[in-house]
């Protein structure tokens, strides 16, 4: 091995010369600016087909981004695998689908669908839900209930009613004497159900009571719930809308009963794991009180965790990510260190290692989590930047590690709030942290590599076709920076080839002086 490499992922910090709502450009970032000016620097693709998504209209996200960064290859991802499985019909030929459908046909119970209602293609796609509803009716299921999580984070911030209308239209087409179908409950994705990395189980508990027990504020329709909450909390965005239950004559229409089947139609794992644990967990489950558990058959769209086998039943096989960078380092006996705060901790560990929650080597891999604050991050845009930086510098100073990686969530997590001022501070925080990490790298003979997993803070405003400007809470489709800083020598890159996130691992391995796997993409070094 040559010198140690320290890789910094600035989550949600894309690169663009477009000024509109570009908080990366607007922020004061002396260290990033100097790195870009003085060291080998180029941009790399972080969205669409370059990271295994169905098309180049798909923005990047942390799952596909960290998968690609961590494995040096482009795998077809959940969004694409589920499309193919539905188009080709193999999802309906799966044992899980057959078992869940047979279950409700025998019991006369309901087939429930829970998931993120949008076409963001990050966690889910409404198209998958609509296709499964049609198929359920065609297969003779007599009752279905839909529990909708409102997005506004992967799609425009207040677009929930567009997706509710789409779903209600399909429901109106399908509903007849043989098929009783309706929306049963819902709420904003940052309020209920979709917590991740066990940052805030109370979100899942709220969602559980709403979806499973039908306990929550009651409305006659999803539209009425959304409109009422918007009137009560002017300016609220969809992801923050409180939970609701649909009731008829005071009775919730979709409380779950023994004999029902439940499908979580999200394909991405991080925000699907906790609800899956609650459904699959035996009597020892202690994250919250589930009340009287109805005996249901539960399945996820994918297996979200291949090590822990969560959930027990699933509809589509996840990508089998092999030959990761960590495996290569372990084979070479190199110690590695990974660090982030809770919100992105699984990104630099679980996603990075190909959606595995267990280490390849207990001895060689060190994972460090800094607990995240539980609050809206525009109130504390610095997040845990200082703590992550302290730990990374400690790891550098220890001299123990050949490869150190960390993720700063600020540009992304604050970007998703839609607060431009806070996002500027978020990007400045990351720059301040980089300043310290660069200094430690220079003093301890480490190569610093800086990149991102996708854009977000670089595009906080967007203009529609009519020229109307609105706040953007979603990721951008822009490329991300890739910088190699070594105080002792320049590592020149091929500046012409169209590289993407999957070219990062091979580049890191070449910097380390190791031999990459044959199946990997190319290194970017000249
Ligand atoms: O918050 C999330 O779940 C996604 C956006 O849906 O963001 P990221 O991919 O950056 O984790
Ligand atoms: Mn991300
Ligand atoms: Mn994000």
From TrEMBL:
Instruction: Establish whether keyword Isomerase is in the entry.
Output: yes
**Keywords recorded for this protein, A-Z:** Isomerase
Query: What is the superkingdom listed in this entry's lineage?
Result: Bacteria
EC id? 5.4.2.12
State the name under which the record lists this protein: 2,3-bisphosphoglycerate-independent phosphoglycerate mutase
């Amino acid at each position: 091995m040559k010198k140690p490499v320290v890789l910094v992922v600035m989550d949600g910090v894309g690169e663009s010369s477009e000024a509109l709502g570009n908080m990366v450009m607007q922020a004061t970032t002396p260290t990033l600016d100097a790195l870009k000016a003085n060291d080998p620097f180029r941009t790399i693709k972080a969205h669409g087909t370059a990271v295994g998504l169905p098309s180049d209209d798909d923005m990047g996200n942390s799952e596909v981004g960290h998968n690609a960064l961590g494995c040096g290859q482009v795998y077809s991802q959940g969004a694409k695998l589920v499309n193919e499985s539905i188009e080709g019909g193999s999802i309906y030929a799966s044992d899980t689908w057959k078992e869940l459908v047979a279950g409700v046909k025998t019991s006369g119970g309901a087939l429930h669908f829970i998931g993120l209602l949008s076409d963001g293609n990050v966690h889910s796609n409404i198209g998958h839900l609509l296709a499964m509803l049609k198929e359920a009716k065609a297969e003779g299921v007599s009752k279905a209930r839909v529990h909708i999580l409102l997005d506004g984070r992967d799609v425009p911030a207040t677009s929930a009613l567009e997706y509710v209308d789409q779903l209600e239209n399909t429901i109106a087409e399908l509903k007849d004497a043989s098929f009783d179908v309706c929306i049963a409950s819902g709420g904003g994705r940052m309020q209920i159900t979709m917590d991740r990395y066990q940052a805030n189980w109370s979100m899942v508990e709220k969602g559980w009571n709403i979806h499973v027990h039908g306990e929550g504020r009651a409305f006659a329709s999803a539209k009425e719930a959304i409109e009422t909450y918007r009137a009560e909390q002017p300016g609220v965005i969809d992801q923050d809308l409180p939970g609701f239950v649909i009731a008829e004559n005071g009775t919730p229409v979709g409380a779950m009963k023994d004999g029902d089947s439940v499908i979580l139609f999200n394909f991405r794992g991080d925000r699907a794991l906790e609800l899956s644990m609650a459904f699959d967990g035996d009597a020892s489950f202690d994250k919250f009180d589930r009340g009287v558990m109805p005996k249901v058959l539960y399945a996820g769209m994918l297996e979200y965790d291949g090590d822990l086998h969560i959930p027990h039943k699933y509809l589509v096989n996840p990508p089998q990510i092999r030959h990761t960078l960590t495996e290569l380092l372990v084979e070479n006996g190199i110690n590695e260190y990974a660090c982030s705060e809770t919100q992105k901790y699984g990104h630099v560990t679980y996603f990075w290692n190909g959606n595995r929650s267990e280490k390849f080597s207990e001895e060689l891999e060190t994972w460090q989590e800094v607990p995240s604050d539980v609050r809206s991050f525009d109130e504390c845009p610095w997040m845990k930047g200082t703590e992550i930086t302290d730990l990374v510098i400690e790891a550098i100073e220890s001299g123990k590690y050949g490869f150190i990686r960390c993720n700063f969530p600020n540009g992304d997590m604050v970007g998703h709030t839609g607060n431009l001022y806070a996002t500027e501070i978020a990007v400045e925080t990351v720059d301040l942290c980089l300043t310290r990490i660069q200094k430690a790298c220079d003093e301890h003979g480490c190569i610093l590599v800086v990149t991102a997993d996708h854009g977000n803070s670089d595009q906080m405003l967007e203009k529609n076709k009519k020229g109307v400007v609105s706040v953007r809470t979603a990721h951008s489709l822009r490329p991300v920076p890739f910088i190699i800083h070594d105080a002792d020598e320049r590592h020149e890159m091929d500046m012409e080839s169209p590289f993407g996130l999957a070219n990062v691992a091979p580049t890191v391995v070449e910097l380390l002086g190791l031999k990459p796997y044959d199946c990997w993409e190319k290194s970017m070094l000249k």
